From TrEMBL:
<dbReference type="GO" id="GO:0002949">
    <property type="term" value="P:tRNA threonylcarbamoyladenosine modification"/>
</dbReference>
<dbReference type="InterPro" id="IPR017860">
    <property type="entry name" value="Peptidase_M22_CS"/>
</dbReference>
<dbReference type="InterPro" id="IPR017861">
    <property type="entry name" value="KAE1/TsaD"/>
</dbReference>
<protein>
    <recommendedName>
        <fullName>N(6)-L-threonylcarbamoyladenine synthase</fullName>
        <ecNumber>2.3.1.234</ecNumber>
    </recommendedName>
</protein>
<dbReference type="InterPro" id="IPR043129">
    <property type="entry name" value="ATPase_NBD"/>
</dbReference>
<dbReference type="Pfam" id="PF00814">
    <property type="entry name" value="TsaD"/>
</dbReference>
<dbReference type="InterPro" id="IPR000905">
    <property type="entry name" value="Gcp-like_dom"/>
</dbReference>
<dbReference type="GO" id="GO:0046872">
    <property type="term" value="F:metal ion binding"/>
</dbReference>
<feature type="domain" description="Gcp-like">
    <location>
        <begin position="24"/>
        <end position="201"/>
    </location>
</feature>
<keyword id="KW-0819">tRNA processing</keyword>
<dbReference type="InterPro" id="IPR022450">
    <property type="entry name" value="TsaD"/>
</dbReference>
<keyword id="KW-0479">Metal-binding</keyword>
<keyword id="KW-0012">Acyltransferase</keyword>
<dbReference type="GO" id="GO:0061711">
    <property type="term" value="F:tRNA N(6)-L-threonylcarbamoyladenine synthase activity"/>
</dbReference>
<keyword id="KW-0808">Transferase</keyword>
Length: 205
């Protein structure tokens, strides 16, 4: 079975072709750093417009790199959320059009579940396991009991780690994205300069 995966939840247009559930044949990503860097953060309207401009070319390249053609696909999997609504709509509508035109099924995939299960492309995991999701807009810890069975153990109450890096980087006048620039500076920093409190999950934790 050949599955086309399509991701447009934020500022990257990505498409991948997966064979039989665990063999990655291609993975093509178009980044938008050049578009958003002068604003110091992601501009949702510009992100959506870039997806519109790039999505078909990214899909075409992914299918070609997989040594396949569109008519060889058996299923389309597309991010349905969470994410920027304008960006998500580009991916969803593209997937719907391909599904209709190729007469193959389409399924929506939760963005966070995709992060959580991506490890299966590298190695076989045994349930249950604990997963830490640290992406641009999310910093969550889950207990995965089985496919589709997840319990949220804790998450940040304000900004996610990625958002914090970008905001601090902008305040310090560092280039976007802030994460790599801050990491580079931190290599020569003092890890004991500030004492940070432990994360609060519940009373007594």
């Amino acid at each position: 079975m050949l599955v086309l995966g399509l991701e447009t939840s934020c500022d990257e247009t990505a498409a991948a072709v997966l064979k039989d559930g665990d063999t990655l044949l291609s993975n093509v990503i178009h980044e938008q750093i050049g578009i958003h860097s002068k604003y110091g953060g992601i501009v949702p309207e510009l992100a959506g417009r870039s997806h519109i401009d790039r999505v078909h070319r990214v899909i075409e390249e992914a299918v070609q790199k997989a040594g396949a053609q569109l008519r060889d696909l058996d299923l389309i999997a597309v991010t349905m959320g969470p994410g920027l609504i304008g960006s998500l709509l580009v991916g969803l509508n593209t997937a719907k059009g391909l599904s209709y035109g190729l007469n193959i099924p389409m399924i929506g995939v939760n963005h966070l579940e995709g992060h959580l299960l991506a490890i299966f492309l590298q190695k076989k995991m045994q349930f249950p396991f604990i997963a830490l999701i640290v992406s641009g807009g999310h910093t969550d810890m889950y207990r995965a009991s089985d496919f589709g069975q997840y319990k949220l153990l804790g998450r940040t109450r304000d900004d996610a780690a990625g958002e914090s890096f970008d905001k601090v980087g902008k305040m310090l006048g560092l280039p976007y994205p802030g994460g790599p620039a801050i990491e580079k500076l931190a290599q020569n920093g003092n890890g004991k300069a500030h004492k940070f409190p432990r994360a609060y999950l519940e009373k007594g934790s």
